[in-house]
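Bench notes, afternoon.
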Amino acid sequence: MTAYLALAISVGVLAILDTWLFGVPLAEMLPGLVWVSFIAWGCHFHSGGGVKGMTTAAVGMSFGAIVGMAAIWALMGPLASLGDFAGPVAVGLGAFVICLASKVPLLATIPASVYGFAAVAGATFLMAGGGDMDPAGALVPTVVSVVIGALFGIVSENLAGVLTKKA
């Protein structure tokens, strides 16, 4: 089997499993966060695959989620007096921190941290459902979803490798 077809089969089958996992057994713990898993899965491949890609996705996205949580707290607290500029300033400060942190080798892939920042923001607004925002309450489900997605990345890659081996 070609590597191209093997990866397509691997990702397709595991996408079914990932979606089911978030839709049934993890539905209460990680409500609606399958998209975060898929972002981390893609980040795994975007970051070069293998253990490095998995680590970059898990660590970078988790760091970005922490920065995003802090940015949301800042816009709800000390930056709130800026009115319409609170959100943009909070995002700008978060982007600044993410770029500075890229000097740390584990955080060198800036897009991974940006994906995590965006994921926790989305999860915060999704979980708020028009009510009170709780970025801390969104952090753990986001990070768990990131780790699951990063694991699906390396599993899909390894499964594709097994499917391409000659008998």
